[in-house]
């Protein structure tokens, strides 16, 4: 199996390309956003296959990696690029990389049977090398790609250094893991539920200026109106809405509750509902 067979390459809008990889029952998506002078690489995937080589085949422009955050499924190929930017709050995570023991559990026999891996990738020894960032993304920055500008918004909650990118001229929003249909992970180390509330209110404001939202997981594009639905659903959890499911601690993860509301599933620390 070759690397291109692992990746699904999907044209999204003019000069925006999705690079999609399978991940458990879901997927993870990185994005290429083309300017006249450079191409922004919004995250670098799972570290399976030749991601950098695929980027070179898809664009002749110099790549600039812009990280939505530092979770393992978003930084896999970062060490293979020359320009890599991330919010300073998660720079150390990027520098550390991901050890085999924290990475290989995703590649179960069932997963590999459903999603054959590239021949050059060995899940028995896999890990993600650390990467030294070449710069930092801060709230209010503007990334000029030449004829195309991406505005940077700090959107913590899912992680301390989460960022969202706004392509105002083309009315597109790229929120990383800040919001998506399906599961929203809010019980992991580094999650901040109060910050997540503020972040959703910011995304509601930004969504008024866009026609489409391209998240890192689940279905795409999102309808901007659904950010309001997500915000209101989250507020109902904070107000005390009972959980729909409860999961005990398992596999190194703390126990968590699931609040399933419409197309959104909030995975929250056990017993948190109503504590805001």
Which descriptors apply to this entry?
alpha/beta; 276 residues; five-stranded mixed β-sheet; seven-stranded mixed β-sheet; Metallo-beta-lactamase, Chain A
Question: How would you portray this structure in words?
Answer:
The structure is a single chain. With 276 residues, the protein is of the alpha/beta class. The chain has a single domain, classed as Ribonuclease Z/Hydroxyacylglutathione hydrolase-like (Metallo-beta-lactamase, Chain A, 4-Layer Sandwich). The chain is 19% helix and 28% strand. The chain contains 6 helices and 16 strands. The strands form 3 sheets. It has a 7-stranded mixed sheet. Strands 8-9-10-11-13 form a 5-stranded mixed sheet, with helices on one face. It has a 4-stranded mixed sheet with strand order 12-16-15-14. Strand 4, helix 2 and strand 5 form a beta-alpha-beta unit. Helix 5 packs antiparallel against helix 6. It is globular and about 50 Å long. The chain starts with a helix and ends in a 7-residue tail after the last strand. The model has no long low-confidence stretch (mean pLDDT 94).
Q: Provide the low-confidence segments as ranges.
A: none
Query: What number of domains?
Result: 1
Shape summary: globular
The termini sit apart by: 49 Å
Q: Into which percentage range does the β-strand content fall?
A: 25-35%
- State the CATH class: Alpha Beta
The number of helical runs is 6
What do we call the CATH homologous superfamily? Ribonuclease Z/Hydroxyacylglutathione hydrolase-like
Strand order of the largest sheet: 1-2-3-4-5-6-7
Main sheet: strands, sense, barrel:
7 strands, mixed
C-alpha-based Rg, rounded = 18 Å
- SSE pattern, N- to C-terminal: HEEEEHEEHHEEEEEEHEHEEE
Task: Give the total of beta strands.
Answer: 16
Q: Which structural class do you get from the secondary structure elements?
A: alpha/beta
Mean pLDDT: 94
Helix-residue proportion: 10-25%
Instruction: Enter the CATH topology name.
Output: Metallo-beta-lactamase, Chain A
């Amino acid at each position: 199996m070759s690397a291109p067979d692992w990746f699904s390459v999907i044209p999204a809008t003019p000069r925006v390309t999705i690079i999609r990889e399978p991940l458990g029952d879901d997927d993870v998506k990185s994005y290429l956003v083309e300017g006249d002078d450079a191409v922004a690489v919004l995250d670098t995937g799972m570290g399976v296959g030749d991601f950098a080589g695929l980027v070179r085949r898809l664009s002749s422009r110099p790549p600039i990696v812009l990280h939505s955050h530092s979770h393992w499924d978003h930084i896999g190929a970062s060490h293979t690029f020359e320009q890599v930017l991330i919010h300073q709050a998660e720079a150390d995570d990027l520098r550390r990389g991901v050890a085999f023991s924290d990475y290989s559990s995703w590649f179960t026999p069932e997963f590999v049977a459903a999603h054959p891996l590239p021949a050059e990738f060995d899940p028995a020894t896999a890990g993600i090398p650390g990467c030294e960032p070449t710069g930092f993304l801060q709230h209010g920055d503007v990334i000029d790609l030449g004829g195309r500008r991406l505005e940077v918004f700090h959107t913590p909650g899912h992680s301390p250094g989460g960022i969202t990118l706004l392509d105002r001229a083309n009315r597109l929003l790229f929120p990383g893991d800040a919001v998506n249909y399906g599961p929203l992970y809010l019980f992991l180390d580094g999650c901040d539920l109060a910050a997540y509330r503020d972040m959703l209110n910011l995304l509601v404001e930004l969504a008024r200026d866009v026609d489409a939202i391209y998240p890192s997981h689940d279905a795409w594009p999102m309808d901007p109106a659904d950010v309001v639905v997500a915000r209101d659903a989250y507020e109902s959890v904070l107000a005390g809405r009972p959980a729909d499911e409860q999961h005990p601690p398992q596999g190194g993860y703390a126990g968590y509750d699931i609040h399933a509301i419409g197309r959104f599933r909030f995975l929250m620390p056990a017993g948190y509902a109503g504590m805001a």
